[in-house]
Design brief:
Helices cover 0% and strands 50% of the residues. By secondary structure, it is mainly β.
């Protein structure tokens, strides 16, 4: 059974930082591209970032480029999203995605 479990979401002030994690099981983690998506209230789910199997190549949406960093630890079957300089518009439920599977999401709220 495939499971993707996100964690690390929280309420943070503008300008703050958070680190999200996505723990995977039931898939051969090291063989799969991993991705982060987010969905803000009343909006469609949007792609945020992805990372290749080895972690050597990463891509980012323009809205988060320079502020967010995606990474992975294949030994721990875990992907991360370091989010810095957070803005209110980053408020959303953040999901990890791989091999047609979605996690349940973790809520990030950026507000003073």
């Amino acid at each position: 059974q495939v499971r993707l479990v996100e964690s690390g979401g929280d309420l943070v002030q503008p300008g703050g930082s958070l680190r999200l994690s996505c723990a995977a099981s039931g898939i051969i983690f090291r063989l799969n591209i991993m991705e982060w998506y987010r969905q803000a209230p009343g909006k469609e789910r949007e792609w945020v970032a992805d990372i290749t199997t080895s972690g050597s190549i990463t891509r980012y949406a323009d809205s988060v480029k320079g502020r967010f960093t995606i990474s992975r630890d294949n030994a721990k079957n875990t992907m991360y999203l370091q989010m810095n300089s957070l803005k209110p518009e980053d408020t959303a439920v953040y999901y990890c995605y791989s091999a047609t599977y979605w996690g349940q999401g973790t809520q990030v709220t950026v507000s003073s």
